[in-house]
Amino acid sequence: MTELQTQEQGLLTLRPVAWYRGLLPEKFGLPRQSGLVPDLTGRVEMAEGFREREALRGLEGFSHLWLIWGFSQNHTWSPTVRPPRLGGNTRLGVFATRAPFRPNPLGLSLVELDKIIWEGPHGPELWVKGADLMDGTPIYDIKPYVPYADARPDARSGFAQGADSTLEVRCSPDLLAKLPEDQRGPLLGILSQDPRPHYQKDPDRIYGMAFGAWNVKFRIAEENVTVISIEKIQ
Predict the structure, then answer these.
(1) CA dihedral 5, 84, 96, 111 (to 10 degrees)
(2) With contact defined as beta carbons under 8 Å apart, do 59 and 116 qualify?
């Protein structure tokens, strides 16, 4: 998706100002919220027409950013959805959730700004951590996170009172050693979040997940994830 258009009192056209480049090319395996896998690193690559240092001047003074982005694989919406947090059995209004099936397929994520690469073929580009985005996600705006205005420690959280409990991940050192060192922690973090759809609880099922240049196969039984294989994608 290269453009998002909505019409109300005229026509609004949104162009991507950047694209997210990361290790997860599919929806399966994506963290369900930003920040749940804080070591997961990706790049915000500025789009043609927006690769200007001046547009990012001062951004290095902030530790976190808001990314406004597009659900590039969802093109329908529903007034009610079934949040995974509630086991996929309870319907709530779409505006009471963060489900992707929205009238305007826009998402909002808070990420950590790790560094800015000013030069190079894709520069300037932002290296960020903790995103919940697929590789190739269009980004429509970037805004700095400002704690005095954005942080509300006493806010009510409705049905989402806290993070889900994590699973124990079992992966042999030999399998894990196949990955680049900086990708090992993020993979274990993703698997610990239980990437399965909530309606799938078959302990004998083998799941496959694309992760960077690798295909990872694993099984989940009770509260444990067992990695079966990590193979290079051909």
Answers:
(1) -60
(2) yes
CA 80, distance to chain mean position in Å, is 22
DSSP, res 212: T
3-class DSSP state of 150? helix
**Which one has a higher pLDDT value, 159 or 147?**
147
Architecture of domain 18-150: Beta Barrel (2.40)
Residue 62 has φ and ψ, to the nearest 5°, of -110, 145
- The verdict on whether omega for the bond into residue 124 sits within 30 degrees of 0, i.e. cis, is yes
Which has the closest alpha carbon to 133: 35, 51, 62, 226? 35
Total residue count of the chain as it appears in this document: 234
Q: Can you tell me which residue has the tokens 């505006």? A: 95
Strongest mean pLDDT among 69-83, 87-101, 181-195: 181-195
Residue 89: how many other CB atoms lie within 10 Å: 9
Hey, is 41 helix, strand or coil? Answer: strand
Written as six digits, the tokens of 177 are 């050693």
User: Is the predicted pLDDT of residue 1 greater than 80, yes or no?
Assistant: no
DSSP H or E stretch at residue 224: strand 224-232
Q: Which of 108, 114, 17, 98 is nearest to 64 (CA)?
A: 114
From the number of C-beta atoms within 10 Å of its C-beta (0-12, 13-18, 19+), residue 141 rates as middle
Mean pLDDT of the chain: 90
**H helix runs in 33-95, sequence order:** none
Q: What integer pLDDT is reported at residue 119 of this predicted model?
A: 86
Nearby residues of 22 by Cβ (< 8 Å), 6 or more positions away: 40, 41, 42, 43, 131, 133, 134, 135
3-state secondary structure of 214: strand
